[in-house]
UniProtKB/TrEMBL annotation:
The keyword Transcription does not apply. Residues 5-241 form the ABC transporter domain. This is ABC transporter ATP-binding protein. CDD domains: ABC_Org_Solvent_Resistant (cd03261). It comes from the Bacteria. The keyword GTP-binding does not apply. It holds the Pfam family ABC_tran. One of its GO terms (molecular function) is ATP binding. Keywords: ATP-binding, Nucleotide-binding, Transport. Residues 445-458 have a biased composition (Basic residues). Residues 326-361, 373-458 are annotated as: Disordered.
Length: 458
């Protein structure tokens, strides 16, 4: 089973460039969450912060009781073993066939014999539909197959948390649809905690249990899918509809006058489209254990959601499920009502619970964040995110790079890193621990250098 990832007050800057501040959210155990946001808002940086490849200046990432931002090297090493990562290009070694690529973490990290390795690799290749392609080289296969091979490799060490960095990038819509189904099925089979960074609206609408959105250097929202999919916050609505009209501009945020004019011009086209039902599992795949856990959690906090989200949650339940939670609302039509003491968070229509339903809890506030408004933050926090780094730095996880950036001339000096553990970007390449499974950690210095050389091949 997966583990919960609790992120608290996380802030990251590169030199004087703030990427995001005060990000707080919890990735619930075994559920699928998606992180959205305009380009350059720091989604990939967020993934790297979760596995300790980048050190935030403030905040915590707590996994199994260990704060990834403030722990010993050995604790970090152990926590990283919980992760599997699917990189955009699959991060396969070009000179190895698919079998050896997928077997790589097992050979590097375990003492398993070749017979056992063959069994595990075969099992994972079957899970991702790659049986028969063992001997192919990455250069000989399609982008979709590369992703699936990367996914098989991320699975071999049985990770409890799987991060997907734009799994749909470069794929056509049909391949994306297959990959999305595969992700949902794999979640059912592994019950691991999934976090997917994507730009694909269809993926965001159909795959996750929870959605988050980074915007204007903050976590604008994070919560159950129904919350964001029914949100009328202009930036969230614009993003989830892929519209030009709205506060998100080509490379920077528009001013409020322009945004208002565009939204007025949209007229009746504004509004939130119907929620597409979430993808179910394929025939023969075991039920997703996360579904029931999530239902319990979301229903417990139903009263804290907006009326639109409440209605969407109720509509997503079967008759039996409604009965289980004592929900008597006929949500698809007409107003639904939670009772006088359970108004919807936005004061609108409410969902009615049976009097003895007994669900009183509320979602923790960090689960239902809201967009920062003009008055909330310093002007600089509301500036548009820059699309280029303040300094010339190379890819952060590349062995020879230094994402510990020097301040540009005249720029404010970077804030000191308060955590006692040395920031990973400040360590010599051979001291860095790659992420377990997809970025396997290695035992000796020689192996480590060999690994990083191979990573450099990508
Ligand atoms: N190692 C680094 N050093 C300095 N700046 C960096 C580093 N890594 C990322 N950045 C900067 O952080 C910002 C956010 O980058 P990131 O790749 O996380 O954005 P993103 O939201 O994933 O974008 P996209 O959706 O286009 O992939 C960018 O301005 C990027 O240049």
């Amino acid at each position: 089973m997966g583990v919960e990832v609790a992120v608290e007050g996380l802030s990251k800057s590169f030199g004087s460039q703030n990427i995001w501040s005060d990000v707080t959210l919890t990735l619930p155990t075994g559920e699928i969450s998606v992180l959205l946001g305009p380009s350059g808002t720091g989604k990939s940086v967020f993934l790297k912060a979760l596995v300790g490849l980048l050190s935030p200046e403030h905040g915590k990432v707590v996994i199994n009781g260990v704060d990834v931002c403030d722990c010993s090297e050995s604790q970090l090493y152990e926590v990283r073993k919980l992760f599997g990562v699917l990189f955009q290009d699959g991060a396969l070694f070009g000179s190895m066939n698919l079998y050896d690529n997928i077997a790589f973490p097992l050979r590097e990290h375990t003492r398993k014999g070749e017979a056992e390795i063959r069994r595990i690799v075969g099992e994972k290749m079957e899970m991702v539909g790659l049986v028969g392609s063992e001997d192919k080289l990455p250069g000989e296969i399609s982008g979709g197959m590369k992703k699936r091979a990367g996914l098989a490799r991320a699975l071999v060490l049985e990770p409890e948390i799987i991060l997907f960095d734009e799994p749909d990038s470069g794929l056509d819509p049909v391949r994306t649809a297959y990959l999305n189904q595969l992700i949902v099925d794999l979640n059912a089979q592994t019950d691991a905690t999934f976090l997917i960074v994507t730009h694909d609206i269809n993926t965001a609408r159909t795959v996750p249990d929870n959605i988050g959105m980074l915007y204007r250097r903050h976590l604008a929202m994070f919560g159950p899918r129904e919350v964001l999919l029914t949100s009328t916050e202009p930036a969230v609505e614009q993003f989830l509809n892929g519209r030009r009209a709205g506060p998100i501009g080509m490379s920077e945020e528009k001013d409020s006058g322009q945004t208002a004019a565009e939204l007025a011009e949209l007229g009746d086209d504004q509004g939130v489209p119907e929620i597409i039902p979430q993808l179910g599992i394929s025939p023969g795949v075991p039920e997703r254990a996360a579904v029931r856990r999530r239902q319990d959690r979301v229903i417990a906090g139903l009263g804290s959601l907006t009326s639109g989200a409440q209605r969407a949650v109720v509509n997503s339940l079967s008759e039996d499920e409604r009965a289980r939670y004592g929900l008597v609302a006929d949500a698809p039509t007409g107003p639904v009502d939670l009772g006088a003491d359970r108004p919807a968070a936005d004061g609108g229509d409410t969902v009615r619970l049976a009097p003895d339903a007994g669900f009183a809890g509320e979602l923790p506030t960090e689960q239902v964040a809201r967009l920062p408004r003009e008055g909330d933050a310093s002007p600089s926090a509301l500036d548009s995110p820059r699309e280029t780094p303040a300094q010339d730095v190379s890819e952060s996880d590349a062995p020879s790079s230094a994402d510990h950036v020097q301040p540009a001339a005249g720029a404010a000096p970077p804030r000191p890193t308060p955590h006692p553990r040395r920031a990973p970007e400040q360590r010599a390449p051979e001291q860095r621990q790659p992420v377990a499974s997809a970025e396997p950690a290695v035992s000796g210095g020689r192996k480590r250098r060999r690994f990083w050389r191979k990573r450099g091949e990508r």
